[in-house]
Design goal:
467 residues; 6-stranded mixed beta sheet
Length: 467
């Protein structure tokens, strides 16, 4: 399980001797440096790196990093809020030692996610990992609920030798086609080996729909560890791709047309270790709490898109009838529904029954996305919200009157629309806190302004290699 305690100046209890032992162990295996990683508000992975021998000092006192990155855009331009975006101040990055791992795809390097605190030792209100840790801890304290989560990873494999900025698929062939698996079998075998060496349990890896596209599904962990794992897996995919003369794009829309890359969230609620999405008396074995949790997520989906689909390129992917889940609808194993109830195979429901949130891509900061989905679900639990009638088939085929009667409406079709929904959602804004909520709004509007006037092809190109 992930350590939920905040870092403190001088180090969390036991962290410094633990870091000292880890540094000696890693150094003895030839690890020369440690990547300290976090994800900013725009969904961009940011890093600093330290020599392995400096790990005990980093565990005690952190590593400096400006808070200005909380309002960076994907193109590295800067927007501001009333408290963020200035050149002033400093933060301390504290490595999460329980998540530190030697990188199999980058010999000589290890990796660890970080929490960020102020120089005065207080929580940094813009830190996404801290937000998710706090959300998970509060859910257990106030509701007695814990969670298991996983993030699906989809990416498009291109040739690294392609002209700068362009995407040339490394493989062709049909969706889920055997030809793709064969053509890149050495690459995917090395990727599986790297994941195994790093302790990442892979459920499956397969060719997907779009040109050069693959998907990797991993085992579920507590939400903070699941978000960490999402970042680690992408680091690994990029590194292994490079070693094979390939380049990986996790952008929501690598090309303007066709199916994009998703980052679907899977989440199950638990009480005293028992999965609340099975063994109950409600629909498909859900308990009353699980139904209300699902109802809360469904009710907040329009505003959640500002967290789960945070890029202008996200809305090239979020189109009806492409299995992206663009309507406020739920259904059992219905892949066009934004909220899919996964019941699991008979005999394995306790392990596998969960909710899948589909209008999510890998431009999303996974800590913010998971934390806000949990906050939305808990709002449903608190109010004992009722889950409406399920849908089957494609909700795009519903007539206007039937859709309205069933509460099925289109999710935001652009980033500015998503921001407007987010601004009206008091639950999500309160969960994030004013500093982080304002940063989300400023960054999303900044991204929208940055591509104003561009056609779809230029929008896709602008974000193709950012995530």
């Amino acid at each position: 399980m992930t350590t939920l305690a905040d870092p403190v100046p001088g180090g969390r209890p036991g962290d410094v001797p633990r870091a000292t032992a880890l540094a000696a162990e890693l150094g003895g295996r030839g690890v020369r440096g440690i990547v300290l990683a976090y994800v900013d508000t725009a969904g961009i992975g940011r890093v600093k790196a330290i020599p392995t021998a400096r790990l005990p000092t980093a565990a005690a006192w952190g590593v400096g990093m400006s808070p200005v990155f909380d309002t960076f855009l994907a193109d590295d331009s800067i927007v501001t809020t009333d408290v963020l975006g200035s050149p002033d101040g400093d933060l301390r990055l504290y490595p999460a030692l329980d998540r530190l791992v030697e990188l199999a795809g980058q010999p000589g390097w290890a990796w660890a996610p970080v929490d960020r605190i102020t120089q005065e030792g207080e929580r940094h209100p813009g830190c996404g990992r801290t937000f998710l840790r706090r959300t998970v801890a509060d859910a257990e304290e106030r509701h007695g609920l814990t969670f298991l989560a996983a993030v699906e990873i989809e990416w498009a494999v291109g040739l690294a030798s392609a002209p700068e900025g362009e995407f040339v698929p490394a493989v062709s062939g049909p969706a889920y086609g055997a030809t793709r698996q064969i053509e890149l079998s050495d690459y995917t075998a090395d990727l599986l080996a790297a994941c195994a060496a790093q302790g990442v349990d892979v459920d499956q890896i397969h060719p997907e729909y779009a040109p050069g596209q693959f998907e990797l599904s991993v085992g579920a962990l507590d939400p903070v560890a699941a978000a960490d794992r999402s970042v680690l897996v992408r680091q690994t995919v990029r590194a292994v791709s490079q070693r094979h003369g390939l380049r990986a794009s996790f952008a929501p829309a690598v090309l303007a047309e066709g199916v994009g890359n998703g980052g679907h969230l899977h989440l199950s609620c638990r009480r005293d270790g028992a999965n609340l999405h099975t063994g109950g008396m409600r629909r498909y074995g859900m308990t009353a709490e699980a139904e209300s949790f699902a109802a809360g997520v469904l009710a907040h989906l329009p505003a959640l898109t500002a967290l789960t689909a945070p890029s202008p390129a996200s809305y090239l992917r979020l189109k009806p009838s492409q299995w992206a889940g663009v309507f406020t609808a739920w259904g059992r194993e219905t892949r066009e529904a934004a909220l899919r109830v996964v019941t699991g195979t008979a005999g394995r429901q306790e392990r596998y029954a969960n909710l899948e949130v589909k209008p999510v891509d890998l431009a999303a900061n996974p800590y913010l996305a998971l934390g806000c989905v949990i906050a939305a679900g808990l709002d449903g639990v608190t109010s004992a919200a009722a889950l409406p009638e399920e849908i089957t088939g494609d909700p795009a085929r519903l007539g206007e009157e039937e859709a309205a009667a069933r509460g099925v409406r289109r999710l935001p079709a652009s980033l500015p629309e998503a921001v407007e929904e987010f601004r009206r959602d008091e639950v999500l804004r309160a969960a994030l806190g004013p500093v982080l909520a304002d940063a989300v709004t400023a960054v999303r509007l900044g991204e929208a302004a940055a591509v104003d006037g561009l056609d779809d092809a230029r929008v896709a190109a602008a974000y193709r290699w950012k995530y």
